[in-house]
Amino acid sequence: MRVAIVTQRFLPTDDAVTAAVLRLVDELRDADHEVLIIAPDTPRGAPPADRVYGGMRVHRVPALRRAGHAPTGLPWPRLRRVLRGFRPDVVHLVGHGLLGYGALRIARGLRVPVVAVDYDDRVGPVACHLYRRASRTLAVGESGLDDLAAHRIPRVHYWPSGRVGTGAGGELVEHYRQACATPRRARGPHPVASGR
């Protein structure tokens, strides 16, 4: 399977979300999936971030520096060309900032299903807007799952943190397959049944 992982957090940022993304990328690679990582570059004036991780390409997008936070990736216009050229079976979104929302719009325009992952315990209005448009949203914690349900986010599924399951019958790959197998409408998100 060809998976484009669009993440707001990646090396050189070192935090729990980056660690989860690295684990995901490593397992996908080890299960022989083709992976493209799209992540923010370092802001101007900082040393450039690596363009390769574990033999996989990391496409870097321009980033804005935010005081006290990791750099914010920007959905640069060439992102469409990068995704179109990679021809992913699914786009895996980590983060609901500008980069995530831009990638979601591009993927939907290319008619590629989007699986969004929520690592937060509380969901704000921007995240709600993005998750309502994703083919499927995965909540890694039960409190996040409850918050998504309270905000009436459709197509939410529980994906316990640390259970990647990227092999042929793995849990994450099954979420990808379900998102890909769902009939696509001309407009709007893909209708996938909700559940835990």
Q: What labels describe this entry?
A:
196 residues, alpha/beta, Rossmann fold, 8-stranded mixed beta sheet, two-stranded antiparallel sheet, 6 helices
Task: Describe the structure concisely for a colleague.
The protein is an alpha/beta fold.
Q: What topology emerges from the helices and strands here?
A:
Elements: E1 2-7, H1 16-30, E2 34-40, E3 52-53, E4 56-61, E5 63-64, E6 72-73, H2 78-86, E7 90-94, H3 98-109, E8 114-118, H4 125-133, E9 136-139, H5 142-150, E10 156-158, H6 171-181
Parallel strand pairs: 1-2, 1-7, 2-4, 7-8, 8-9, 9-10
Antiparallel strand pairs: 3-4, 5-6
Pfam families: Glyco_transf_4
InterPro entries: Glyco_trans_4-like_N, Glycosyltransferase_grp1
GO biological process, one term: carbohydrate derivative biosynthetic process
What would you call the structural class?
A: alpha/beta
How many separate domains make up the residues?
Answer: 1
Pattern of helices and strands: EHEEEEEHEHEHEHEH
**Proportion of helical residues:** 25-40%
CATH architecture: 3-Layer(aba) Sandwich
Taken as a percent bin, the fraction of beta residues is 15-25%
Strand order of the largest sheet: 3-4-2-1-7-8-9-10
| Rg | 15 Å
**Number of separate strands:** 10
Shape: globular
Q: Count the helices. How many? A: 6
CATH class: Alpha Beta
Q: What is the CATH topology?
A: Rossmann fold
Low-pLDDT runs: 185-196
Biggest β-sheet strands, sense, barrel:
8 strands, mixed
CATH superfamily: Glycogen Phosphorylase B
User: Average pLDDT, to the nearest integer?
Assistant: 83
Cα distance, first to last residue?
Answer: 24 Å
GO molecular function: hexosyltransferase activity
Pfam families: Glyco_transf_4
Keywords: Glycosyltransferase, Transferase
GO biological process, one term: liposaccharide metabolic process
